Amino acid sequence: MATAAGPETPATEAATAADAAPDVATIPDGTPATIPDGVPPADPDDLAQPGGPADRPKKKWPLAARVAIAVLSALVTLALINGGKSVLRSLVDKDHINNVAAGDCLRESRTDRNSPYRIVGCDDAAATHKALAVVDGSGDSCIHVAGATRSVTNRAGNVCLGPKDVDPAKAVNVAKEGDCLGQNGDEAQRVDCSGADAEYTVLKRIVGVPAADTKTACDDVPGAVGTYSWDWESELTANILPGVVDVLLCLGER
What we know:
Blueprint: H1 10-20, E1 24-26, E2 32-34, H2 63-92, E3 105-108, E4 117-120, E5 129-135, E6 150-154, E7 157-163, E8 180-184, E9 187-191, E10 200-210, E11 224-230, E12 244-253
Antiparallel strand pairs: 1-2, 3-4, 3-5, 5-7, 6-7, 8-9, 8-10, 10-12, 11-12
């Protein structure tokens, strides 16, 4: 005999609904979120708090950049070490060019890589130059110092050097229009215009004349009977501008 099934009880309906409904979880703001089948619900302690800082991924420099930075750091360190050694040597070596003052005499030391010139007594037979001034500026800033013929750099600036026995008052490198010149061997020197040794008057001073033009540079100067050329020396005892006369003086008879 068939038995008719009665209506499902409320408990049975609830169980059926629970089996059919997906798992849900509640996120911190109270909004329910659906959790897919087979995925366990997250621990509430693991949920990020709203408004909290998020971890940022660390930036990694490309390999080439990291190598370049490492090389640069090594070079800077080496330069600082070598610079410190140079300063230390100049402090220990009292005759170093870094310690020179105007009036000191020097001997030339081409093979001395630490100091191209060494300070010596002016009565020393090895003395070849005298420091006339120490100035700031470019390499040719000494060209306007009376008696200077070359310059050498040190930590204070440019040391203006002239021959050991130079007399700045007679230096021709600063001769200007109206000055008088006399002959001193193969060299000219400034002299008192009222003196018996005054042979020529400077009529014009020209700076930076091409060597090929020195014979005609004074042709348009009235009364010019000759010229006198003066060349500056660099640390290598060469003219600053090869092929150019640094100072050309147009001379008239006294």
